[in-house]
Structure formats: structure tokens, C-alpha cells
Amino acid sequence: MGQETPKAKHARNDSLVVIDNRTGKQYSVPITHNSVPATFFKFIRAPAGPDDRPEDEAERGLRVADRGFLNTAVIESAITYIDGERGILRYRGYPIEQLAEKSTFLECAYLLIYGALPARSQLSHFEREVLLHGIMHADATKFFGSFRYDAHPMAMLTSAFAYLGSYYGEANPSLQGQTLFTKCAKGDPEALQNMDKQIYRLIGKAITLAAMAYRVRQGREFVVPPTGMSYAESFLYQLDHLSPTDSFSASSSASPSPSPYKPHPVLARALDILFILHADHEMNASSTTVLQTGSSLPDPYSAVAAGCASLYGPLHGGANEAVIRMLVSIGSPNNVPTFLAAVKRREKVLSGFGHRVYKTSDPRSFIIRKIADEVFAVTGPDPLLDTAMALHDAALKDDYFVSRKLAPNVDFWSGLIYRAMGFPMDFFPVLFVVPRIVGWVAHWRQMMLSPEGVKIWRPRQIYVGPSERSYVPFDEREAVQGPGKEPSIVIHSG
Ligand code: ACO
């Protein structure tokens, strides 16, 4: 009763009728998965009108304009689903709330990459391979040593992934042939093995490289990844372990064995959950960048380096760092109204608020609030918490933010947790990159395994520049002057 019969379902005409008023022609555009193919619009052509420029190319087909990808689906994906209106996030169908409560980061990584929750033996195999591949060649010491003492860790990490690619010629389609990874789509076992090895390396070495970027600035020796620890524990160990030649270990123990450092279980689990929450987020800016870069078939290390660069920006993964800088600049709850007034005048940005997809709430922000309390119970609360709460509460009551559907995103709280755990502010985006590598490789692998093959991501543009004009000799030119219209005069220091 009340159920749609299969016949009624088929009776529906899943198409869009478009009339081109320039020509009076009518087109029927197929609708699949509630989307229309942009390529179809290429067939809608018209003779150039009186207002058309030759560069509009009206005779060559209609283009679909979408500045900033506001409503363009660039891929079919089976990995992550977000319902931004209802505040839903699911990895391979599993709600993020359940995964954060019951799963571990490496189990979620398996799920995101291979598509199903693993059997116990499958998970053990995957964990072993990932953790085994954490060790970096000793040469990397020289690489990290070449950075300035105050280099931003993201500059180091971004470069480190491109550098890592130089170790593995067998993972480079430029050297091995461009079907190196795309032949995985045909089930070629050797190709799949090669691909999986790079995946283990990328995830395994992410924490090692991140820890190296952290320790090099402190002038501390690098730590060999430990055995017998979880991913998050291994990361904390590599960050904070005092190596045998560090003064504490050397003086406190007669034996040269490593110091008995063990990450705090509450902090290790909190980091593991934070990693789960950050592992994937469908077509965000950095995943799109990884796919865009990957579409020209470079090695996956180069694609991941591109993803790092994209994530680093304050509108994306750099927002956690920006939130703390913002809270420090606000200073106290009393200054919140003045700050929000400046945001409304568009003089300041309320970092950690707003999202391209979430328009009610970011489900990760509720989970993260809970983790914050657990972490603060161990570390003590962050002194910025009062300002953060005052800002949060005031913004959620203010019509400016409510009417624009601006709610706190994951970055509003994550920075406070990282700060309480003792991470330096500029390390926060690194803590986002480490888990997001899983999402990037899951999307990259899905693209390589696509039965239709990989299409290079080459978008269109709408050209609004000058039409053809002839070269003007120096003596006949009139110089175009003004700010932004000519190269600036810069001050030379030193
Ligand atoms: N503070 C004040 N106003 C904002 C904010 C904000 N944080 N975010 C959006 N708005 C306003 C815009 O000015 C715009 O107002 P208008 O319609 O009057 O011009 C309206 O809300 C719609 O915003 P858009 O800029 O169109 O939203 P978009 O989807 O392009 O941008 C973004 C999303 C980049 C996340 C934006 O909300 C932002 O800059 N937030 C702050 C940075 C941040 O927290 N980034 C982390 C995102 S989550 C992540 O990457 C993990």
C-alpha cells in the first residue's frame, strides 16, 4: 500500500527539456543520479548574436559556467556521502558518529580505500603493512636539515612528499609507462600490488615525515618508528620520545635502551578519533587538487604534495591555525562583540565558521566538542576556551550568521584541542594532512580503477580579455599605469 510500483517508476521521464531561445530549438537532456551531463550542452549551438564576441564561440556549443565549482559534480564516487542540509557524514555508508565511537583510524582507512569493513586478519595485514612502511631512509635527515630553523612545517611536509616520490622509481608512470596505475582497473595483480605498496608507504610515512618536520625545528634527533603501537600512538611517540642520546634518557638510564615513553592513552585515542573525523570529506578543495593533479598521471607522491599545498590555505585545512590566531587576537570574551562587528563590516574573518556544503551543522563539530572535554580533563582547559565559547554563542545568536547558515565547522574546535595537547600552532595543518592522506589515496585509487579510464581534468574558461590586436612598437605605445596594472616597486632589504 502506498508503494510505487516498478511500472510507475519506469514511467517517469528522467530528462530535462531545454529551449534555446536564440534558435527556438528544443533539447531533451538526460538526468542520471539527479544530474545532467555538462557535455550535452556542447551540442546546443547558435549563430553568433549581435552582442557575442568571437571568443564566446557561440557556434561551437554552450558552455557551463561554475566559478568555484558551486554545483558541478566532477566525479562519480562511492566513498563518502555528505548531506549538508541535514548535517550527515558517512564513510562508505557508515555514519561518522558510529565510526568515531567504535572504529580506529586504520580500520576507517581500510574502509575508505578498499570499500568494506575488514575482517580481523585483513585489518592486521593492513595495519602491519602501513606501520612497517613508516621507516624513512636515513638520507631524509639531510633533507629536513636543509630547511631554515623557522620553516613552516607545512612547507617541509609539502616538499617532503614530492621528495619521497624520488625514492620510488617503480611508482612513477613517467619512468614505467603511463598505464602503471590505470591497468589496475583490469585487475592486473602486479599493478595492484605496486599500487598498494605506495598506499602503505604514503600512510605509513605520513606520521614519520610529520614528526621529522616537528623535531627538526627543535634541534632534536629523529625517532625511528616504534613497533607494537597504534598509528596515533606511534605518531605521538615519534614526536615526543626522547632518543637515547637526548640528555634526559642518557642521564636517567645506564642502559642505552630507549626511554620508557608511552603516549597517554586518552590523548592517543583522542588523536585517533580526530584522525577518523579528518580522514575524508568527499570533493573538498585538497581532494579535488589531488585528483586534478593525479589526472595527468604523475606518481601519487606528487599528487599528495599538491594536496598538501591546497589544504594548507586558511580557507581549508589552515583554518585550525587561523582560529587560534583569531582567538589570540580577540584576547578575551569582552572583546567578542567588537570582533563580530568587524566581521560584519567584512574587515575580519570568523575562522572556523561556515562551510561550502554544511548549511546547518557540521556533524564532526559535535564529536569534537566531546573529545575536547576528554582532552581538557587530562591537560587542563585551554585559556582561550572562554573566548571561543563566547564567540561561538554570540555568533549563533546573531542574525548575520544565522541568516547565512554559518555554523562552527570542525576547525573551530580542533585547534583548541591541539593547543591543549601541546602542539605548536603552525603544526595544526600538519595534523589535518596526516589523516586526510587516506581520503586522498582513496579518491586517487578510485580514479585509477575507473573502468572508463582516467580523463585529464581540463576545465573550460570564459575568455573576457581583449580580442585579437596587433603588436605595438615601443615608440607608438601609451603606457598603462596604476596600482595592479604594472609591476610594483618593492623595497630591497639586506
Ligand atoms: N565569516 C563571516 N562571513 C562568512 C563566513 C565567515 N567565516 N563564511 C561565509 N561567510 C559569508 C560570506 O561573506 C557570504 O556572505 P554574503 O552572501 O553576504 O556575501 C555568505 O556567508 C556565503 O559564504 P560563501 O563565501 O559564499 O561560502 P563558500 O561556500 O564560498 O565558502 C568557506 C566556504 C570558505 C568555508 C567560508 O565559509 C569561510 O571562509 N569560512 C572561514 C574559513 C574556514 O573556517 N574554513 C574551514 C572550512 S572547513 C574545512 O576545510 C575543514
Automatic annotation (TrEMBL):
Q: Name one Pfam family in it.
A: Citrate_synt
Residue numbers annotated as active site: H355, D411
The UniProt entry's GO biological process terms, in alphabetical order, are: tricarboxylic acid cycle
Its annotated pathway? Carbohydrate metabolism
What SUPFAM superfamilies does the entry give? Citrate synthase
Keywords, A to Z, come to: Transferase, Tricarboxylic acid cycle
Q: Which domain of life is it from?
A: Eukaryota
Under Gene Ontology molecular function, one entry of this record is: acyltransferase activity, acyl groups converted into alkyl on transfer
Family per similarity comment: Belongs to the citrate synthase family.
**Per its record, how is this protein called by name?**
Citrate synthase
Question: Which species?
Answer: Pisolithus microcarpus 441
